[in-house]
Amino acid sequence: MQTWVFVLAAFVGYQVITRVPALLHTPLMSAANAITGISLVGSLVAAGSGRGFASNILGAIAVACASINVVGGFLITDRMLKMFKQPGKKE
Amino acid sequence: MNESSFARELLIQFAYLISSILFILGLSGLSDPKRARNGMRLAMLAMLFAVVGTLLHHDIVRFDWIIVGLVVGSFIGVVIGLPLGIDIPMTAMPQFVAISHMFGAVAATLVGIDEYLALGTTPSAPIMGALGAEVILGALTVTGSFIAFAKLQELIGGRPITFRGQNVFNISLFVATIGLLVYQMIVPGQPMVFFIMVGLATMIGVLMVLPIGGADMPVVISLLNAYAGLSASAMGFALNNNLLIVVGALDGASGLLLSILMCRAMNRSIMNVLFGAFGTVATNKSIKSAAGLTVKEVSVDDAAVSLAYAQNVIVVPGYGLAVARAQHLIREMADLIEKKGGEVRYAIHPVAGRMPGHMNVLLAEAEVPYDKLVDMEEINDDFEKTDVALVIGANDVVNPAARSDPSSPIYGMPILNVDKAKSVIVMKRGMGAGFAGIENELFFEPRTSMLFGDAKSSLGKLVAALKAL
Questions:
Q1: First-residue to last-residue Cα distance in chain A
Q2: How many helices (H) and strands (E) does chain B have?
Q3: ipTM of this predicted complex?
Q4: Which long-range contacts (CB under 8 A, 24 or more apart) does B183-190 make?
Q5: Maximum alpha-carbon separation in chain A
Q6: Are B115 and B236 in contact (CB under 8 A)?
Q7: pLDDT digits over B257-311, tens only?
Q8: CB A71 to CB B74 under 8 A?
Q9: Residue A25 pLDDT > 80, yes or no?
Q10: Under 8 Å between Cβ of B319 and B394
């Protein structure tokens, strides 16, 4: 079942990414980087678990690192995309 | 499972489903520059849904460490992300992606280690396999990204670092790491073996990136992105979390595809990039000697005159432009030429600069309309009808040796047909070779004239001369 989900998601990813024009490849790279921060999900579970101090510390560090990835990644991506102005700004 | 925890689980799954859909919508927004920014807002929302959904999880019993982590991490993230493009030039973007990546991979690795320790002595073989994949991919992404960052930031030399038997050594290391994982799947409960495996994976990251030259770094960064994504997916398998599996797979697919596209643009295979150690031994023997050939220099005023009276001008930007941060001056120059009746377009080679689409971002920053930026395939036939091709800080992507000289290391790479233009002006700091370390015959062509100097000061003088005309 999990493998099924994985393969389907990879297929969707492939379909979506092939439609991204070369013009936007650098922002795509940066966006993909921001999205890697999804490891935040696992980090939160560790940081908030009742498994003991070591788990919480490891988790808190992981949460911090994943947040750097998410916040930094989205900031950089947005900064880049802000530069793509509409030609002539008509309409 | 009682009723309230069932409702809670339902809520979590619902939040995760919304999150997955928003991530997919967000990425598909990137297929159009007009929708891209909104797409990224959807992706941010998706991340929010992911976090909120996770916080509802019944395993989460305390929030103090979560809050500390989130606050500290977000603060550092802002400190890293905010100066880019303001105090730090956009050219530094690739290494920022690399370092931001490293942090995500640290998180994945730590979670994997924590899970392993929490599982105790006997994780089942599939769980062990997933955890192992998570920490191996995570750990090699951590060190690999750091080396990529260090190379691009020039903390260590950008040239490929190689030694004899490197590929054999790296592959043995990789096989050994996988071997340790398989061993643990059969005989679980050996923390020592687990940590040795993590250690080996960090070594793979270092050794994998060290031999790769600066020009190939974007491919590596994108590939590391894919690894980090797959690591998150593996985490999803281990934690039985579909959201992690889906988003990790999206990330893995995009990273892999992007690195393949980049390699294709350079007409090289991924294998060649990873194991070829471009620009070392192989290049030395095929450098064409420049002895006996002369270049023609041109003065700023002469260059200004030929630009002012040209009907068609194609600007070929390269990494030199990015370094000099002269994109705004290009825009100013193009406006002046257009005022005099000429047409200015920009030819974008897929690997010009250091990232795919690097030049697009750079010129977009100077508010050059993006319909003026033309991809290589579309513009290549137009060079014959072009009065002046202005090459600014580009080298390898306009080297005709890629078409004509089978001994050249870049032979077969698609290039911009600048040499077909009626006249060519090359702006360059000096006669140094490009990234690939090879001589460029274009500079010695009779139709080519060279305008030496820093791109920014040369362009400044050109703009002044054009205004005076």
A1: 48
A2: 18, 6
A3: 0.92
A4: B184/B128, B184/B132, B185/B125, B185/B128, B185/B129, B185/B132, B186/B125, B188/B121, B188/B122, B188/B123, B188/B124, B188/B125, B188/B128, B189/B120, B189/B121, B189/B122, B189/B123
A5: 59
A6: no
A7: 988 887 877 767 777 776 655 434 333 333 444 445 677 888 888 888 888 888 8
A8: yes
A9: yes
A10: yes
To the nearest whole Å, the CA of B328 is away from the closest chain A CA by 13
Within a 10 A sphere around the Cβ of B171, how many other Cβ atoms? 12
Nearest by CB to B232, from A18, A39, A65: name it. A39
Q: Beta partners for B345?
A: B314
Q: A67–B69: do the CB atoms touch at under 8 Å?
A: yes
Domain boundaries, chain A: 24-82
A58 and B CB contact within 8 Å: yes
pLDDT at B39 over 50: yes
Token pair for B102? 């490293």
CA proximity to A36, closest of B302, B362, B107, B280: B107
Answer whether 0.80 is exceeded by the pTM.
no
CA distance B201 to chain A (A): 18
- Average pLDDT of chain A, as a whole number: 85
Residues B144/B209, Cβ–Cβ less than 8 Å? yes
Domains of chain B: 62-275 (no CATH), 300-468 (3.40.50.1220)
Q: Which of B87, B396, B405, B454 is catalytic?
A: B396
B25-38 pLDDT, tens per residue? 999 999 888 888 89
For chain B, the residue count is: 469
- CB A22 to CB B375 under 8 A? yes
How long is chain A? 91
pLDDT at B134: 94
Is residue B375 flagged as an active site residue?
Answer: no
